[in-house]
Chromosomal replication initiator protein DnaA (Marinobacter guineae), 489 residues
Amino acid sequence: MPNSMWHQCLEVLRDEFPAQQFNTWLRPLQSDHREGQLMLFAPNRFVMDWVNEKYLRRIEEVLKDLNGGQAPRVNMKVGSAPRESDPVKRSEMPARVNGQVLEESGSRVTEEERGVAAMVPGSTSAGSTSVRPKSFNERRPVQIEGDIKHQSFLNEGFTFETFVEGKSNQLARAASMQVAENPGGAYNPLFLYGGVGLGKTHLMHAIGNEIVRRNPRAKVAYLRSERFVADMVKALQLNAINEFKRYYRSVDALLIDDIQFFARKERSQEEFFHTFNALLEGGQQVIVTCDRFPKEIVDMEERLKSRFGWGLTVMVEPPELETRVAILMKKAEQANVKLSSEAAFFIAQKIRSNVRELEGALRLVIANAHFTGSEITPPFIRESLKDLLALHEKQVSIDNIQRTVAEYYKIKVADLLSKRRTRVVTRPRQVAMSLSKELTNHSLPEIGDAFGGRDHTTVLHACKKIVELQETDPGIREDYQNFMRLLTT
Ligand SMILES: Nc1ncnc2c1ncn2[C@@H]1O[C@H](COP(=O)(O)OP(=O)(O)OP(=O)(O)O)[C@@H](O)[C@H]1O
């Protein structure tokens, strides 16, 4: 049974399980086939135990089908598959002498990294409130703003209590709780990913706040990835790179938000890679958020991406209606405003894109109610959100795209949603997915859902493919332009 059979098996399982489950438990498994036995490697014990308990029987069934009815021997282990592409190459590990990481960096700071340093507000000496270790500040005439001070950068309002749990974020919340209770333990690093405004930053702060609540002496550093880049560039300019390294490696937990901004910033990736290794080896917790699954981050070093997968990778999905309602009720309660469930439902039905927009809409309604002294009723909400709703309604819907594409190619909408993989339907399906990404505000997972419950990676692949084809295939280019005209005028 060749290793490729495991990939076929994954394809079958991908269609059977929700994307979140698949990406968290099955996708990170690596395989190795020797002497009639398939060895599956899990990134940690938690994943191994979970897969053993929940998925192994189904995995064996699928493999048996794929193997002509012959049941394979499957074993599981924590670790990585021993092969050429094994991400855990000793040569990649930094050399250590007396606990210090030694490295000679060959990569240079790119123009973009310099640009980030210049763009990030506060990357000058003005308004500096740094509380870094003394030696770090003493040696430098100019301080980088106090963004790497520990603890105080956490948003105190972002806690587990203020985070509303729902189907879409259950696993992410549970994993975050585990990390907060046992930082540097089994789930290290914790990689939270998902679309914009869905609560990744909130969860990250909740972990930081909880770590500090349990241990007030804990040093927790939270920062957006641009800040890491800016700090690093500044430290290089000031000849203070060793202090920079020492600081980041001295924290108990390093929380880096929106890691996708590391793309193309070679020197920062390298620096972060070594910091990352040092922290993991020291049993310190690393938490990272990103707008996509690690493997899909473009222009990011493979070794860094593979390390992101060493701990636990969890997706935060867009909230379903009930969760959106619960979030609105919670936010209204926090603002001391009475919101009827009818009013909450009304807003939640209208605003589906993400929690940030939902909050924005609620804020607008509350402000109008204060201003006019009115009660918050559906007609009042409709009036308050008139402009916002007009914008939403003007937007093209996925339904409309599916109908238009199906009609144009003379196939059924049901074909677009089906599992059929013949060329007659796959290309129109890819075109429709790509248009949905371009013309609507829906996230990749939402678009995947709207196309028969497909994984968000399928949507991403479709979008890339259509961009490529527009370059090389005049027929597709013309079709696409026609659709843009049909749908937007
Ligand atoms: N489940 C939830 N319960 C309560 N509030 C939430 C929830 N999810 C998101 N929010 C709120 O929505 C807003 C946006 O969330 P957050 O900033 O964490 O999103 P994000 O996923 O980090 O987005 P981005 O990728 O743009 O950084 C915040 O004010 C947050 O408190």
Summary: The longest strand covers residues 37-42.
